[in-house]
């Protein structure tokens, strides 16, 4: 059987390029809901790649179905693909002991690596906080992980910060008032500890309106920030797209780093409810301080949970950026959707 490039997620550029370079004919793909004339490649050409992916898992009755775990964590297939049929064909050709519905979990090497984050979170919240033994993190390779997971933000790409107005009919805030809060009044945040100011920014205006939790008719000052001329920002990227094919030669190490960053990213993005304790901030505050200490990064970039698709940037210092203008906005529309939950 043959499969087309459209069956796979476009974000895995290495896989897309391999299929396009090795396809030698155009036909209708039987696995793709588009049924267009597409470049096809025999599934056999991808067996080595799929073999490495399948070898990341072991049978586990308490685990998740193999097809769901591969799609959730690795995002291999596009929405157009009948990926159950593709996986079934692959597993048959590999003579695997798995079916695509078998329950699996990651092999111990991967599971032990990523589970340390859950252990660390509980340890620094409830056992010991200020004298963490970072030797274990060094042994796990977290130094290399964060130093290698960087992206660069250059001059020309604007960033935004919002401040709510608590009194009506005010003018927009001054440029000088849009930077980091004063250290004597800054509260604890998702990334910064109490009294240590970080600069929270977003990639677009809509995201910052969500991040400050603005309500209907709220007035908000939004500052536009630019990287200073001659500077650039090095950011540890917790939004890195999955690119399994390009990392297939070191797939176990790649799986460990990718899955760990995703767990941390989820905690960075998780909104704190008004009645939650600030203790919930401590693990992500620790990660930010750790990154600040062991790397040359200026900050981090991660997904916004309040605005799907939005990106947030946290800078440990504000010396490489400057606010170039401030504009006043009024919130004109708020969409709130409720979900009924079972009562106790």
Description of the structure:
The structure is a single chain. This protein is an alpha+beta fold and 344 residues long. It has 2 domains: 2-106, no CATH class; 146-330, no CATH class. It has helices at 13-22, 47-54, 66-74, 83-93, 108-126, 135-140, 142-148, 205-211, 251-269, 282-294; strands spanning 2-4, 26-28, 37-42, 57-65, 103-106, 150-154, 159-164, 199-202, 219-227, 232-237, 299-303, 311-315, 321-330. Strands 6-10-11-12-8 form a 5-stranded mixed sheet. β2 and β3 form a beta hairpin. The protein is globular, with a radius of gyration of 23 Å. The mean pLDDT is 91.
Order of strands in the sheet with most strands: 6-10-11-12-8
Which whole number gives the mean pLDDT? 91
Number of helices: 10
Distance between the termini: 52 Å
* Number of beta-strand segments: 13
What portion of the residues fall into strands of 2 or more residues? 15-25%
Low-pLDDT residue spans: none
Q: What oligomeric state do these chains adopt?
A: single chain
Query: How many strands, what sense, and barrel or not for the largest sheet?
Result: 5 strands, mixed
Give the helix/strand class. alpha+beta
Total domains? 2
Q: Please state the overall shape, judged from the principal axes of the Cα atoms.
A: globular
Radius of gyration: 23 Å
**Helix and strand element order:** EHEEHEHHEHHHEEEHEEHHEEE
Helix content: 25-40%
């Amino acid at each position: 059987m043959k499969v087309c490039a459209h069956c796979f997620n476009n974000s895995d550029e290495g896989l897309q390029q391999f299929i396009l370079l090795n396809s030698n004919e155009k036909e209708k793909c039987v696995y793709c809901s588009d049924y267009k004339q597409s470049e096809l490649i025999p599934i056999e050409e991808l067996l080595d790649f799929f073999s490495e992916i399948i070898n990341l898992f072991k049978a586990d009755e308490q685990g998740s179905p193999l097809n769901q775990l591969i799609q959730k964590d690795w995002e291999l297939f596009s929405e157009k693909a009948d990926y159950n049929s593709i996986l079934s064909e692959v597993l048959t050709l590999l003579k695997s002991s798995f079916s695509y519905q078998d329950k699996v979990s990651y092999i111990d090497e991967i599971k032990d690596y990523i589970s340390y984050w859950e252990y660390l979170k509980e340890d620094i919240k409830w056992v010991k906080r200020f004298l963490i033994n970072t030797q274990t993190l060094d042994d796990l390779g977290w130094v290399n992980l964060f130093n290698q997971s960087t992206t660069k933000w250059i001059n020309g790409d604007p960033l935004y910060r919002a401040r709510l107005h608590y009194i009506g009919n005010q003018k927009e805030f001054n440029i000088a008032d849009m930077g980091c809060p004063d250290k004597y009044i800054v509260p604890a945040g998702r990334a910064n500890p109490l009294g240590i100011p970080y600069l929270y920014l977003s990639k677009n205006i809509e995201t910052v309106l969500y991040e400050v939790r603005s309500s209907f008719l709220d007035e908000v000052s939004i500052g536009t920030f630019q990287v200073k001329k001659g500077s650039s920002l090095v950011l540890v990227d917790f939004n890195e797209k999955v690119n399994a094919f390009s990392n297939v030669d070191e797939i176990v190490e790649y799986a460990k780093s990718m899955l760990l960053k995703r767990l941390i990213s989820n905690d960075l993005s998780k909104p704190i409810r008004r009645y939650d304790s600030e203790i919930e901030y401590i693990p992500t505050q620790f990660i930010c301080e750790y990154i600040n200490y062991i790397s040359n990064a200026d900050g981090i970039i991660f997904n916004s949970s309040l605005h799907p698709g939005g990106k947030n940037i946290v800078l440990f210092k504000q010396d490489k950026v400057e606010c170039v203008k401030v504009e006043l906005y009024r919130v004109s529309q708020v969409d709130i959707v409720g979900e009924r939950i079972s009562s106790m």
